[in-house]
Each structure stands twice: as structure tokens, then as C-alpha cells.
Amino acid sequence: MSEIPLHHGGCLCGAIRYEVRGPAMQTSFCHCEDCRKASGAPAVAWTFFPPNSLRWTQGAPREIRFAERIRSFCADCGSPLLFTDPALPQFTEVNTCSLDDPAAFPPGDQCWVADEIPWMHSVPSLPRFELTSPLPVDE
Ligand SMILES: [Zn+2]
Ligand SMILES: [Zn+2]
């Protein structure tokens, strides 16, 4: 009997923790405007787990219903955690970067590229700094 993998995650401030069971069924990098607004990020990585596979182990998220879908987030720090779409009951959609090991869930596709911010194309060629970027210097 194969063991179903268990993954852990939570919000930035630590008030909310969860565990989610199962192999990732799909991973996607979403450019839609709703994800951008809800996260404050230029795109959001999602990992789709089987239905009812997530259990809150500490705290409980706040939910906002928008465009017929529910976005769950930490009311203390604002971290987006979960997306629930009644039209897709076969999935538990977890914000990949709320998982403790997001590197284990690389996106398999990009969706809603119709909404993509044009400057996303230039991101891979930008200067890179190991830590913070240098501050602008007054001359
Ligand atoms: Zn929090
Ligand atoms: Zn989206």
C-alpha cells in the first residue's frame, strides 16, 4: 500500500497552519487579474490537490466570496491560502507559496495569459542580486 504524502503550510504570521494530503494533481501559474489583486503579486502559483484533502491545524482563515468563488486568507497578516471554485469541486486549490516547501511544486503551466502584465516578459532578463537590490544613490 502506497502512502499518501502529507504536506504542511500556513500564513506569514503563523496564526494559520494547515496540512494537505495527496499528490499534487496539477500545478499552474495564474496571471488573472483576480489573483493579482487578491495577492498583490504579478501572478500566483497554485497547486491542485484532491477534494477535501486540506485540514486546518491551527487557526481558521477568513473567506471572501468574489466572482462566485471563495478566497481564503489569514485575517491577521493577509496571506492568501486557498481558492475554492464551486465549478471545480474535484480540486482543493492551494496557494503554492503558502506551502512550507513551494519548491517541490513547480508550475506545470501558465493560465490566464490573456491578463498577463506585459513586463512579466522582461523579468527573467533583469539584473539579479543575491539579497536586496542596491539603493539608488543621490549624485
Ligand atoms: Zn497570518
Ligand atoms: Zn487566477
Tag the structure with descriptive keywords.
139 residues; mainly beta; Metal Binding Protein, Guanine Nucleotide Exchange Factor, Chain A; 3-stranded antiparallel beta sheet; 1 helix; 10 strands; binds zinc ion
How many domain modules? Answer: 1
Task: Please report which band the strand proportion falls in: under 5%, 5-15%, 15-25%, 25-35%, 35-45% or over 45%.
Answer: 25-35%
Q: Could you give the distance between the termini?
A: 67 Å
Q: What characteristic shape results from the CA principal axes?
A: globular
Q: Provide the helix percentage.
A: under 10%
Could you give the order of strands across the largest sheet? 6-7-8-9-4-3-10
Rg is 17 Å
The sequence of SSEs as H and E is: EEEHEEEEEEE
Ligands in the model, by name, code or SMILES, are:
zinc ion
Question: Can you put this structure into words, describing what you see?
Answer:
The protein is mainly beta and 139 residues long. It has one helix at residues 33-39; strands at residues 6-10, 17-21, 26-30, 44-49, 54-58, 62-66, 69-73, 80-84, 92-95, 110-111. The chain has one domain: Beta Complex (Metal Binding Protein, Guanine Nucleotide Exchange Factor, Chain A). The protein contains 1 helix and 10 strands. The strands form 2 sheets. The protein has a 7-stranded mixed beta sheet with strand order 6-7-8-9-4-3-10. β7 (69-73) and β8 form a beta hairpin. The longest helix is centred in the first third of the chain and has 7 residues, at 33-39. The chain is globular, with a radius of gyration of 17 Å. The model has no long low-confidence stretch (mean pLDDT 95). The structure holds zinc ion (2 copies). One zinc ion (ZN) is lined by residues 11-13, 15-16, 74, 76-77, 79.
